[in-house]
């Protein structure tokens, strides 16, 4: 029988032991030569004759290999500047001492790189520097002395996170040097021991410190340090025996242990602190590295999203793409996600899926379900800076009542490193353990790419079943959610938006990007609708000698892909570097130019085909009006040709005449001939000055608005309800305000709650004047100084029949950490405001009763925010803004920010935008707000026409009508994806806009064979839309906020 020996040494205090352990394990300790890191690599060789370096500086390998490379030594020169590319040819000669051993090349330039074979195959990415380093490339697993190896390294002169400073602003002249270019051999025994110690140290210090296992872990590490002598291989074996024995103790029965599924990933921002061009290389570097790791670790499973990145890879790195397809078939590569890029707060699903865009709120459960996605995963809510989100695994209920199974990783990161502390967080932070004892761990370096490292996979192998820790295993995301479905008890439901209490400034930053996005969305929609009209008309007229119209399938796909690319979660939100936004602005210009050309082509086809039907051939001029919304409109418009004199009543400064067009058919085309009853005369002055009070007034049959000298709204009367004064006594609207905007850290991303405490009104220097008295359109104009560097010009307008008061703005903006808003105070009492989201609307509180309420001091919305009592309300609309705030009876629209990082010039320069006020009877739920907001963003499209091209009245009757049309919005008309441009099958997408069940008739003059209910992927759901009692009609019933996709099959 053995008895414990007497330990004659003093017990070492825990703090001292912890420091000793840190010194032994750390790579940067002052006592590096006494620690374990010194022994991880052996037989180090650098320079001649074993390592030969030569360089050529061109962007492409094909060009480089055909040139003469210049020989260089490791420390000979620096390489740059920022974003440059240098190709290194690496010639290695294996030293005889390495014979039979694995040979590894270590390379560190503090920048990113890619290893290429001599035949042009990308092999593996390299990451320089510290923190997310990846310095090693395995040359051969069994070296032969004297053998030669040659390969190339493509060095990109940028780090994993660009070339920025602490504020992430890029330095255009950053240079890099070769810090390491060594041939080494890994010491497998020492590395094995090191990975063991890494786990044991986590158990010692990242679990309950006073638990028996934690205290034993401290003893084991300390004893390993006592035993460790690098030059004594027997001591290494004794140390390894200690660590193996400790880690061999498992959890016993798995049933009672928390189960973690670990999935490798490398989040690659499609643009952020680098432009799109660099992302294409990051994808290849990151994903080729993961393929290599899969070969070395057969149980390793990796997941990747972002369809755009797969498309780029297939185009620029086909050999890597081919390998990914092979790994996917073997189950090691999982493709997830339903969107073109990772949208964060933006939803943009492409191909056969819905083309939605905008800030992500409560629409998502329904869209995911209709897209064939059954699960939702995120970790962003762990970033909340005021309230802790109360759920981890739950059912998320959308605005339409759809439930989707959701999981928020309790590890609170998508870039885990597979450490003991992360595993313990999975249990400590899990809010629903009593319902579901499982969690998902997403590990791998991310944002700049990279992904999992060998060290992470080594830790994962050791952590599968260790006493005192949750059980963890590699697995797919799909397997994880299927396990949740199988093993969970009843889960709680969370009904409401998953509001991120962070990054609220992104609703406003980079205003020009948001404007380009909104314009592009509506232009592409116009092309789809008008292209469908033209194709159907072309088919009907195919026997006539007027040519045929080709529906622009490829152009539309190009436009949608490019638009969705630029909705990436650092592009549309405005949090990338200036170099990235040069691409975004260029893309938006290309989309707008192309879609305007496509729209013109479709309109011309319609005009030409219809002109063939005209029996009159008399000289005349007029307009052809295209209405791409589904209801009839009457509006004041500008004649698209200058210096006309059709009515001779009013012109704008550019020489375009104002005329009133009545009853433009919804989803149809009408003609308006000059000097006829098509264009009616108006005779009433609408703008005038109140000589008593010096106020300026805009007035029509609906509204009377009174402004002071600063352009501030001091009175607004709804003349349909004459006693309704909308501005409280002493209050004002259209008050421009400047807030100090200094966030805690994330400049472009964040506006903090305290910004509301420090602001000033912009007033006192404006001089308002009447620029147009009417009778068709009345306008007031003022110019107001914002600061010594910035100013705003505003034109306030009201047309003769409009129910909207519009504010057209031109701003020259050159501020720093200032936030421009406009405020309206209303004589309305409501505890909620209603904001438009994608295909629906969402209520939010107008009070600060709780921290959850006050955290929503700045919220996102689309085209409007509405404040309504039971029988009356006012909507604040915009044409390119997304940030709102409503508190009590005060509404604000966020206009411009001025952060200085990561784009130091964000939002500097000229801006054009519009907002409008729409007072309405009844609560929002019974109003016309949605239609008004769409009209504000989708103006009538006009074409000047002469002779046979124009005729009075209907030129093309509506393709479809929804009657009644107050609740159901027909938003999309396009050819089906599988129609191949033939015009035989159409897709309609409708939605219920107010939150109540709605019934209506869908009417059409087209010869319809049948209408099949589809999902957003355009898959048939084996259900037909029933026909109505009226010829050419079909019955519609939509539940609250339901999205309905219909596949219309036309008779051939």
How would you describe the overall organization of this protein?
- The chain is α+β, with helices and mostly antiparallel strands.
- It contains 17 helices and 53 strands.
- The strands form twelve sheets. A nine-stranded antiparallel beta sheet has the order 31-32-33-34-43-40-39-36-37. A six-stranded antiparallel beta sheet has the order 3-2-4-9-6-7.
- A hairpin with a 5-residue loop joins β50 and β51.
- About 2% of the residues have low confidence.
- It holds the Pfam family Glyco_hydro_38C.
- Degrades free oligosaccharides in the vacuole.
Which characteristics define this entry?
single chain, 1052 residues, alpha+beta, nine-stranded antiparallel sheet, six-stranded antiparallel sheet, 17 helices, 53 strands, 22% helix
Rg (C-alpha, Å): 33 Å
Uncertain runs are 345-360
Number of strands: 53
The assembly state of the depicted protein chains is single chain
Give the number of helices.
Answer: 17
What is the structural class? Answer: alpha+beta
Helical proportion, percent range: 10-25%
Cross-sheet strand order for the largest sheet: 31-32-33-34-43-40-39-36-37
Mean pLDDT, nearest integer? 94
How much of the sequence is in beta strands? 25-35%
Largest sheet: 9 strands, antiparallel
Report the end-to-end length measured between terminal Cα atoms.
Answer: 96 Å
Sum up the overall morphology in one term. Answer: elongated
